[in-house]
Design brief:
Length: 126
């Protein structure tokens, strides 16, 4: 049962992160007119910072006093996730006859969620 609630908390945290990610990406891409992939990275980075803080305290209840090392691990997992995220967007948006950018981004977020949860549970917050 603990795993179920941990996944639920991770998912809720991820949902908030997704809102931050989408909002920042949209703002940067549509209003500020920054390149869509750089906008994606900005949104992702803001979401990662938020997600680390919430997951550390709420989801995994970490008491690790070496939070810098822990954040570094979280960041590595997230950067791999960013690479996967960007690659999936590229595949769907550029290669699949122009799937809408935001639809491609949604698919990427779902796939990367699985990666992030498993990697953080088994590596970052173990």
């Amino acid at each position: 049962m603990d795993l179920f609630f941990r996944i639920l908390k991770f998912g809720l945290t991820g949902f908030l992160g997704m809102a931050i990610d989408f909002g920042a990406t949209w703002l940067c891409k549509e209003k500020i007119r920054i390149n869509k992939y750089i906008s994606n990275a900005i949104g992702f980075t803001l979401a990662v910072t938020n997600n680390y803080l919430i997951n550390r305290v709420w989801t995994f209840q970490s008491t690790n006093s070496h939070w810098g090392t822990e954040f570094s691990k979280f960041l590595v997992v997230s950067l791999i996730g960013l690479g996967l995220n960007t690659f999936i967007i590229y595949l769907f948006h550029q290669r699949k006859n122009g799937t809408n950018f935001y639809v491609a981004k949604f698919f990427a977020i779902v796939i990367v969620f699985v990666w992030n949860f498993l990697a953080n549970m088994l590596f970052t917050f173990r």
